[in-house]
Amino acid sequence: MFGCPIREGARVHPEAEALTYAGHSWSYGALDAEVNRWVAALEARGIGAGQRVALLSTNQPACVFLFWALGRLGALLAPLNARLTRAELAPLVEDIAPALTLAMGALRDRLPGAESLETFASSSTSTICGSLTEDSARVVLFTSGTTGRPKGAVLTEGNFRASCRASAENLGSHPAPRWLGTLPLFHVGGLAMLTRTSYEGGCLVLHERFDADATSRAIDEGVTHVSLVATTLERVLDVRAGHRVPETFKLALIGGGPVPVFLLERARAVGLLALQTYGLTEACSQVTTESPAEADGKTAGRPLPGTQVRIVGDDGEARGPGEEGNIEVRGPTVMAGYWNRPDATREAFRDGWLHTKDLGALDARGRLTVLSRRTDLIVRGGENIYPAEVEAVLANHPSVQEAAVIGVPDARWGEVPVAFLAPRTGQPRPDAQGLETWCRESLAGFKLPTRFVWVDTLPRNAMGKLERTALRKVLTEG
User: If exposure means fewest CB atoms within 10 Å of the residue's CB, which of 9, 290, 294, 430 is most exposed?
Assistant: First the structure.
């Protein structure tokens, strides 16, 4: 049985800092008192075990208060993507049938009937703090929906605690970590930082959104850990302009795909340890992560302690080291299932293994290389082309900020790759011949893009994932 880590922190180290936001700070004692007010407000509305509360908000302290208050009542949080439109949100709310819907004022028009998040807390308090088990459901997190209608992954108290333990074992213990929270709290990465700091007695340094200047200042002011993607890492390095990070800063986790070699070298030059990682909502964030002792930027690292990863063929048979196939995951961080989607849940699991729909390979040391999502795989004349491989080559070109490769129909080959490129500021744009020559140095001829399309930026959703469907529209509408 587990109690609330905020209540425990208020008992053991009440003056320790637990949360900061926009110049405000809450100790564990103050945060516990604030959560008590939210518990009272939820009780007054009849919220109890198993009920769902939908939330539409950017990163705000109230989101933190609500998350811990719901845990004390055994209720579930269903945080919704703050970038979605009213039409996109409607089916998600219908799916979870919330007993209560809350939204920050600027977003309330997108959720009919939503109550104000800012004014919800009660003036009275409640000291109720129920216990949770490994299987107690905590959140319903909707997948990004880039390949269809989003599904709600149900993550449990056991999932979050196992993820925290495994990450700490891999990264190394810290007496009081200070995680910079720029990832949205409707994303598994944001919630992983929220829970991790509380379980470890640390502090969540919450920002409403990512800002390169603010992130750089936070690093100088004592943040120990941060989660970024390659593009945001580069923006932070640009801001720092060669200024070394202080010794108080330990590391950055880099998700969202491979990181260009030159970018890792830039990070190392200023003392910033950047570890590549692979994860997904259904496995409560990290699945594999480089370890600080052997990080070389060549892979997404080994499975976290307690997590198993295997590569299997379409026939379900395990593949050996270096052989490509489907990535499957098993362990205590894997979700309980999809909310009210028994068919989708059965499809997602095979003999207890989560079928990720991602393609990859494990090397002889057990390190994972992620090649592609199954739905992104390009088959050209019977040959498989993994977009990530081509994108990594293009992203290392000095004139390319970032790259994305998609497959488009072709009468002769079935499918051919097309590359979209965002330019690097201050660098000349090479022509198609120059880009093709660059690619030929690292790629077989059949993998070469048939077109190179320059765009200002690549479209990404709120989780930082590339929206390939939007790129296909560029071709069809152009």
Answer: 294
Mean of pLDDT values over 440-451: 90
Q: Where are the alpha helices (DSSP H) in 45-187?
A: 61-73, 86-96, 157-171
Is the distance from CB of 27 to CB of 157 less than 8 angstroms? no
Identify the structural domains of the chain with CATH numbers, from first to last. 193-373 (3.40.50.12780), 377-477 (3.30.300.30)
Q: What is the pLDDT of residue 126?
A: 95
The residues, any chain, with a CB within 8 Å of residue 173's CB and separated by 6 or more, are none
Query: 197 near 67, Cβ under 8 Å?
Result: no
Long-range contacts of residues 294-300, Cβ cutoff 8 Å, at least 24 apart: 297/259, 297/261, 297/264, 298/367, 298/369, 299/363, 299/367, 299/368, 299/369, 300/276, 300/367, 300/368, 300/369, 300/370
Structure tokens at 292: 């600080």
pLDDT tens track for 291-337: 999 899 889 999 999 999 999 998 889 999 999 999 999 999 999 99
Q: What is the residue type of 419? A: A
Cβ(194)–Cβ(61) below 8 Å: no
Instruction: Quickly list DSSP for 55-74.
Output: EE-SS-HHHHHHHHHHHHHT
The CA–CA distances, whole Å, from 459 to 315, 337, 404, 476 equal 35, 29, 10, 16
CB 238 within 8 A of CB 213: no
- Please say whether the beta carbons of 438 and 450 come within 8 A: no
Looking at residue 174, its amino acid is H
Give which of 377, 447, 451, 381 is closest to 414, Cα–Cα.
381
End-to-end CA distance of the chain: 58
Average pLDDT over residues 415-427: 93
Max Cα–Cα distance, the chain, nearest Å:
71
Give the Cβ contact number of residue 383 at 10 Å: 13
Contact 44, 37 (CB under 8 A): no
Q: What is this structure's pTM? A: 0.86
**Identity at 338, one-letter amino acid code:** Y
- Rounded distance between C-alpha atoms, residue 103 and residue 370, angstroms: 37
Residue 466: what are its φ and ψ, rounded to 5°?
A: -65, 135
Residue of higher predicted confidence among 78 and 148: 78
Contacts of 470 (CB under 8 A, 6+ apart): 459
